[in-house]
């Protein structure tokens, strides 16, 4: 239907990626969770226009949950009925819940900074892949810090979090669409505090 659009996918590969419109797809984000039977994996589909993530969805078919964002905002459909997604208003690290896939992904000095960062938050948990990012949008988690992500790991999640009121960038504060070391937070104030801690 849109022959001029491009595709970037983990499984599919790349096609027409010089297009203004790029669909970024990860059929199973969280392969280890999928293999283990843990329902924190998901199917990610995102759309970038001129490099900016403008729409995205995360589907978790086992739990029947759908998180998505478009021009009208960020939304949830699933158990409990449809609702608008809104981040928490947490601004202090001392009151924040932090998720990361595993601290083992932080290497060298970055691991030392992460360990100090984790000690400053109220609660830290591990291993929830894309589901953790949607929980920021849903108001259940305050921060996700994950190094080494690919574009197909994060593009779909950017508009879901941003339309819910959160912030998503690299650890250095740059655009997250290209992947890398990614930081998502519920509020701009919390994002700034987390970024400062991770950068040392």
CATH topology of the largest domain: D-Maltodextrin-Binding Protein, domain 2
What's the SSE pattern? EEEHEEEEEEHEHEHHEEH
Whole-Å distance between the termini?
48 Å
The low-confidence runs, each spanning 5 or more residues with pLDDT under 50, are none
Q: How much strand?
A: 35-45%
Largest sheet: 8 strands, mixed
Q: In total, how many beta strands?
A: 13
The chain-level mean pLDDT equals 96
Number of helices: 6
Helix content: 25-40%
Major sheet strand order: 2-1-3-4-5-6-7-8
CATH architecture of the largest domain: 3-Layer(aba) Sandwich
List the quaternary state of the chains. single chain
Q: What is the count of distinct domains?
A: 2
* Class per helix and strand makeup: alpha+beta
Features:
single chain; 200 residues; alpha+beta; Fructose-1,6-Bisphosphatase, Chain A, domain 1; D-Maltodextrin-Binding Protein, domain 2; 2 domains; eight-stranded mixed beta sheet; five-stranded mixed beta sheet; globular
Structural notes for this entry:
This protein has helices spanning 31-36, 109-120, 129-138, 151-154, 157-163, 188-199; strands at residues 6-9, 13-15, 21-29, 42-49, 52-60, 65-70, 73-77, 83-84, 97-100, 123-126, 143-149, 167-170, 180-185. The longest helix has 12 residues, at 109-120. The chain is globular, with a radius of gyration of 16 Å. Helix 3 (129-138) runs parallel beside helix 5 (157-163). The chain folds into 2 domains: 6-84, Fructose-1,6-Bisphosphatase, Chain A, domain 1; 93-199, 3-Layer(aba) Sandwich (D-Maltodextrin-Binding Protein, domain 2), CATH 3.40.190.80. With 200 residues, the protein is α+β, with helices and mostly antiparallel strands. The strands form 2 sheets. The chain has an 8-stranded mixed β-sheet with strand order 2-1-3-4-5-6-7-8. Strands 10-9-11-13-12 form a 5-stranded mixed β-sheet, with helices on both faces.
